[in-house]
Design brief:
30% helix, Rossmann fold, alpha/beta, 10 helices, disordered C terminus
């Protein structure tokens, strides 16, 4: 596997190492049918910031990290051998929350340009995205600047986005043929509410769940729902339960989640959305406790 390191510089993208591997050459060597997953970090990371450079931490090929965090590529199975190609996408998510939000929007245009380049060099190649927290704003900002289906599928891990932002992105032409998997849990509720207040002054809501009614390619994966976890276990994805009631990182720290994410974005035969969620015969009563199943009509923030 080759992991290419790319940085957003304003609205443009650049290879982190200009003398490193060439994108076009790597795409030419990638076997037909292999997707190109793009990995996007969230808030508090930025290229070249000591200790917070994503290319040296969560988006690196390291086996372990000193602070107990998880390097995404290795846990996705991108370990340096085999035919895969992945892209670690760095952007300036460091500093104040408001500065990071502004940078995420600009980085979205850089992402759109990167996706267009991949599509131009390797027509028909599937492009997928895994993004955490404010990284979801990068993806949503890219969609209006892309052609329909340019991003085949994106997995949003506890996305720190507003309801109005999501609705605008879903209404854009670029989102028409894009599948969106929204990974949610009540572990993240406090972070969702704080991020929403900071971003809108309380005038908007978190993106939340339940958008399949307006976007045919939408699916919610609720990591705090025992029924959903049991269904995933039957599919071969044994995902651990919550370790804390409040956690913004469990969407990628939970045992077993990366096997699911690999099946969604990095395999030649991607896991179809219609197999991802359990079929619910009747709506159960609203969940009152942490471990109970989540009813389909229950309001939940990410």
């Amino acid at each position: 596997m080759t992991l290419l390191h790319v940085n957003a510089e304003g609205c443009l993208w650049r290879m982190r190492d200009p003398g490193g591997p060439d994108l076009a050459a790597r795409l030419d060597r990638l076997p037909p049918g292999r997707p190109v997953p793009i990995l996007i970090h969230g808030f508090r990371y930025a290229p070249s910031v000591p200790g917070r450079d994503p290319h040296e931490t969560i988006l690196s090929l390291a086996e372990t990290l000193p602070d107990g965090d998880l390097p995404w590529p290795r846990h996705l199975g991108l370990t340096g051998g085999g035919p895969d190609l992945g892209i670690a996408f760095g952007w300036r998510g460091y500093g104040s929350f408001w500065h990071a939000r502004a940078e995420a929007r600009r980085a979205g245009l850089a992402l759109a340009a990167l996706v267009a380049r991949i599509r131009a060099v390797s027509p028909g190649r599937r492009v997928t995205v895994l993004a955490h927290s404010l990284g979801a704003r990068v993806v949503l900002s890219a969609l209006p600047a892309t052609t329909p289906g340019a991003i085949d599928r994106t997995v949003l891990l506890f996305p720190a986005i507003l309801r109005s932002e999501l609705e605008a992105a879903l209404a854009s032409r670029g989102a028409v043929a894009t599948e969106i998997i929204n990974v949610t849990s009540r572990e993240n509720r406090l972070f969702d509410l704080v991020a929403t207040f900071l971003a809108s002054g309380g005038l908007d809501r978190p993106a939340g769940a339940g958008h399949a009614v307006r976007h045919a390619g939408w699916a919610d994966v609720r990591l705090d729902c025992t029924e959903a976890l049991a269904h995933l276990n039957l599919l071969g994805f044994a995902i651990g339960g919550p370790e804390r009631r409040i956690c913004h990182w469990s969407s990628y720290m939970r045992p077993g989640v990366f096997a699911l994410y690999r099946a969604l974005i990095a395999e030649t035969e991607a896991l179809p959305l219609d197999r991802l969620l359990p079929r619910i015969a009747a709506a159960p009563a609203p969940a009152a406790d942490w471990v109970e199943p989540c009813g389909p009509a229950e309001f939940a923030v990410n």
